[in-house]
Write a structure and sequence with these properties.
The chain has helices at 2-15, 20-30, 45-55, 67-74, 86-98, 107-113, 124-139, 164-186, 196-205, 227-234, 286-294, 310-319, and strands at 35-38, 60-64, 81-85, 216-219, 239-244, 247-253, 258-265, 300-302, 322-326, 334-338. By secondary structure, the protein is α/β, with parallel strands linked by helices.
């Protein structure tokens, strides 16, 4: 098999020649230390990792962003490199715990399995909504438990009681209920429903040792990684090679109520990614969300700083609804809905 693998690589080299920058990356990887490669879309990130993998000995792991990329990568990488998604690794490791439990949660699941009560001016549905949002924030963080350090979470940015004491009581109650649900999720024999990111979080908290299986890990599109995955990778003792760019897609105000969808530099725009998405409408998976954003690249739209801005675009990409909330919580503020992004 090694001979066949080598022959295929030689044939691919005759078709595609590495650039000087890619050759430098290969040479740097040979040293055996961790490596971070900054490369933009279309610059040959995956082909660089394939070339690197050919030069490294031992067992390798290529971490793909989604299933489609994983399947495509499996046809490109040599046989000593496993191509997997993080969720597939986590699922296999936790399968005995999560069988028949994985689906998209709703506030009705929280109300069904938890003893949620009205507190201050917040009804049971309001509390369940916040509990679910906090659970999703937690499972995408590198924290190991839900505690009162989450009081400053973006989940509670718009929570407001009649006074400061009521506000604190509401926040503390939500944190306690979210911690209770999570603890029940991870107990032996639990049948509580969970989402896909929940079992990835379970896997992270088990402190997995991928270095016992792999000599090097190749991580493509690392700019899309959440703190959970980064925490898993940073704890591995084997060689790690990260490749990605520092761009995200968003709408830019061009003046005169005109906005254009462009790529932004994450480091130059600290506002990007600050605001969460209201999941009341249901949400697309991350792959579909990215495809929806890319489908509007270069398109122009009506732009208003208050009523039709980057939040509308983000909400449309993530939920399919072109909306903005102005004046408080989702159930108290004014919700402005448009059909702009559907029609462009």
């Amino acid at each position: 098999m090694d001979a066949i693998d080598s022959l295929l690589f030689k044939e691919s080299c005759t078709i595609y020649q590495l650039t000087d920058e890619q050759k430098q990356c290969v040479e740097a990887a040979r040293v055996g230390k961790d490596l971070k490669i900054k490369a933009f879309a279309g610059s040959g990130k995956t082909s660089t990792l394939v070339a690197i993998s050919r030069e490294l000995s031992g067992k390798g792991l290529y971490l793909a962003y989604n299933k489609a990329i994983q399947i495509d990568a499996a046809r490109k990488f040599p046989l000593h490199v496993d191509c997997k998604t993080a969720h597939s690794i986590a699922y296999r490791a936790t399968a005995y715990q999560i069988k028949d439990r994985v689906r998209t949660l709703s506030i009705f699941d929280i109300l069904r399995y938890m003893d949620i009560k009205r507190i201050c001016c917040y009804e049971e549905n309001d509390i369940a909504f916040l509990v679910l949002k906090l659970l999703r924030v937690f499972v995408n963080s590198d924290r190991n438990k839900i505690d009162h350090q989450f009081r400053l979470s973006r989940v509670f940015e718009e929570v407001a009681g009649n006074n400061g004491e009521e506000t604190r009581a509401i926040i503390n109650y939500v944190i306690d209920r979210a911690a209770e649900y999570w603890q029940a999720c991870i107990e032996r024999g639990s049948t509580l429903p969970i989402e896909h990111d929940f079992y990835l979080k379970m896997y992270q908290l088990s402190n997995p040792d991928l270095s016992s299986v792999y000599d090097f890990i190749l991580f493509d599109e690392c700019q899309d990684a959440n703190p959970v995955l980064l925490d898993i990778l940073l704890k591995q003792k084997c060689q790690k090679i990260y490749v990605g760019d520092d761009k995200v897609i968003g709408i830019t105000n061009k003046g005169s109520n005109n906005g254009v969808v462009e790529k932004h530099n994450i480091n130059a725009d600290p506002v990007i990614g600050k605001y969460g998405i209201d999941p009341k409408y249901g949400m697309y998976d991350l792959e579909t969300t990215a495809q929806r954003a890319e489908s509007k690249m270069g398109k122009s739209s009506y732009y208003d700083l208050w009523f039709h801005n980057c939040h509308n675009f983000t909400n449309w990409c993530r939920t399919g609804v072109d909306y903005n909330i102005f004046g408080g919580k989702a159930d108290q503020g004014f919700i402005f809905k448009y059909k702009t992004w559907d029609n462009i």
